[in-house]
Amino acid sequence: MIVLAKIITALVAFIHVYILWIEMFAWTTTGRKVFKNFPKDLFIPTKQMAANQGLYNGFLAAGLIWSLLISDGNWSCNVALFFLGCVTVAGMYGAVSVSKKIFIVQSVPALAGIILWLIVKFA
Known about the structure:
This protein is mainly α. Helices cover 81% and strands 0% of the residues. The protein has one domain (2-122).
């Protein structure tokens, strides 16, 4: 079960590295394709704001990757739970404020990771 928990955690980290890349480096190109409901005329004026958001997604990814590199199983689990919880809350806020799709893309995988880590922790 721990292997599956780590795979899901790595997947969530990868998603956030991808979001970082889009928001920091490809906002006016790939960002237009991914965020189809965002007004096309606002991509250039919001480039710096998107880069800032991308940086925060990078911090989430860094925390998740860090959790996978910690050798102490209990500490690794706690760090993963914290960052997966942060991702879940961010996805929930995004779903309420921007698009329900954000909940599916961010919160659902993070919640799956939380469930798996809790099973590992308490089984």
